[in-house]
Structure prediction request, 420 residues.
Amino acid sequence: MTTEKGNAAPSLLAVLRAPKYLPIFLVSALSLWGDNIARITIAAIVFQRTKSPLMTATTLAVSLLPSVFGRSLLGPLVDRFPYKWVIVWAHLLRALCVVGLIVLVSEAAPLRAIFAVLFLLETIGGAAVASNMVLMTDLFPDRRLYARAIGLNALSEQTNQAVGLAVGGAIVAWVGAEAGLLADLASFLIAAVTILVVVELRPVSGERSKGVVGFVRDLGGAVGDMAHHPVLARFITLSVIACVGIAAPEALAIPIAGDNWWSGLLMAAPVAGAVLGILLITRRDVHWQNNSLIPLAMLMPLPLIATIFHPHYVVLALLWFVSGMLQAFMVPLQATFTLVTPEALRGRIFSLAGAVSVGAAGLSYLGAGWIAKHTGPEAAVTVCAGVSLVFVALLGLRWPDVAVRQAVDAAYAPRTARAA
Prediction:
């Protein structure tokens, strides 16, 4: 395919041929599959015990909100220690947490104990996410190839999330909760060994403030750097607003479907849609992708609004699938955000931005659950979609088109041009 700039778009095969990328890609996919099986496993257990939409949504929020603390508080570690060791230790510690979950679930422990271990597991994972983003920028010095790789990673994430969510519901009913958690445990251990063997040890770049005070100063500096940047601040705002609509279907799929196999398929529908959307958008030129951020973000909530009419599960899954397709704008948003961030600040800013986005998703889960408790789960999805649509429209009125265009030109310029 020919881009608007006259260059051939990099192929997915070219991405997979990049040195050391394929094994990292495969273990990441394996880990995502195990994680999402574990997520729906715990959520289904909670719903079986409580029959409460709010408690089910709270479970999903508990699996996300700790990343706010993990990413923001542990983010500066990525700038202070080689990202290889941060990733390896994070995987090993999370594997230990999964062992704890297996024990708690098998003994029918109180939900508060399960939530506590789940909170710790996701908190530790915060630093690994930021480290993986830094790793990706090192693997792909060709930035257009990098943009394609981010799309492939997102495609893998959505595909494995769809598989994990769809299969997870069946695992709870047919095999038991422990089987899903064992898959998650194995994925962390395999990922840790792979990173240890494959990833090259690189020293950290840039200067760091010393001591605990310096650690806090670096974290505060990341807040200022991101908040005052004309492009980064708008990108993270768009991500937060979009989360309000994106999170609601996943949070309320189980209460909408009830105690049957449709719950996993409904949760998987927007994720499966995102797979197709990512395939389509990543074939376009990076300028086209970034010019489409606001239009796609405004279209994304529209299919969700029809949820209030209680359509048949087949129709509902189709509507959510279309909404998922339109969520693909998050891929160029993430890629450009990453490249626009100064290299020496990437660890802390990636962590902080991820914390804000995940926090927004977690709060959206809680908000959707609270609205569902008072109005019903279908109405709650519609309300969240409407709120997202209104705020994206308001943001679009003040979108910095010129600044974004200049940032994209600089970020995706050939390496020799950037050096000059």
Observations:
- DSSP finds 20 helices and no strands in the chain.
